[in-house]
Design brief:
The structure is a single chain. The protein has helices at residues 36-48, 117-120, 135-138, 141-153, 157-183, 190-204, and strands at 2-11, 14-20, 71-81, 84-96, 102-110, 113-114. The protein has 6 helices and 6 strands; from the N terminus they run E-E-H-E-E-E-E-H-H-H-H-H. It has 2 domains: 2-129, 3-Layer(aba) Sandwich (Rossmann fold); 160-204. The chain is α+β, with helices and mostly antiparallel strands.
């Protein structure tokens, strides 16, 4: 896979950026606070649909654009995969929520068509390692697991689907456990979720 072109619109400090990406090794050089890490963040967002810096996706929208009632940040890439050229776009959209506040949502387009996240992850591959990511080595097992999950998901679609199903089943099982504790519901209802966790967990390990 080869990234050939990167385009940013209202993404972080960049109101607009269009850049071809030469093949081979590329070095990004510049003074502090000029957007070097933002470029890496944009590429990583295309790969994992998450940011390694933002606590909330709304932080990815340029601060001037974010003042508008409807604000959109876009990251677009053209890349070659095998013999084909593809276009991937991630949009972060801030819009009114109908209650006087704002909500932020994400849209993903692959070759011009809207797709679900699990249909896109693995199509554009990137692995990131920053000096501040020492937690992968010295931190908790959860930090290492998250990093490995994101990396493996890019090369194994079956793993991606199993990870999504496992997390959903775990959330449902935990909610049911809470309900059983509060209302005394039938604990045999846990059997269904236990089976789902076992099936998908076997794929993950």
């Amino acid at each position: 896979m080869h990234l050939t072109h990167l385009s940013l619109t209202n993404f972080r400090a960049f109101a607009r950026l269009d850049s071809d990406v030469p093949a081979g090794v590329n070095l990004i050089v510049g003074d502090n606070a000029q957007g070097k890490t933002t470029l890496l963040e944009a590429v990583y967002l295309l790969s994992t649909l998450t940011s390694f810096q933002a606590a909330h996706p709304g932080e990815l929208i340029n601060f001037l654009e974010a003042r508008q009632p409807l604000a959109v940040a876009r990251v677009q890439a053209e890349y070659r995969r095998g013999e084909r050229t593809h276009r991937l776009e991630v949009r972060v959209i801030q819009e009114p929520n109908g209650n006087g506040g704002k909500r932020v949502r994400r849209e993903v387009l692959l070759d011009g068509l809207k797709r679900k996240a699990d249909e896109v992850i693995g199509h554009f591959n990137a692995v990131l390692f920053l000096p501040g990511m020492f937690a992968i080595i010295a931190g908790s097992p959860a930090d290492r697991r998250k990093y490995l999950d994101l990396t493996i998901a890019q090369v194994n679609p079956r793993y991606t689907a199993a990870l999504s199903a496992y997390n959903k089943a775990l959330a449902q099982r935990n909610a049911l456990l809470k309900q059983i504790g509060e209302t005394g519901s039938d604990p045999t209802q846990l059997d269904y979720w236990d089976e789902l966790l076992a099936q998908n967990g076997a794929i993950l390990i």
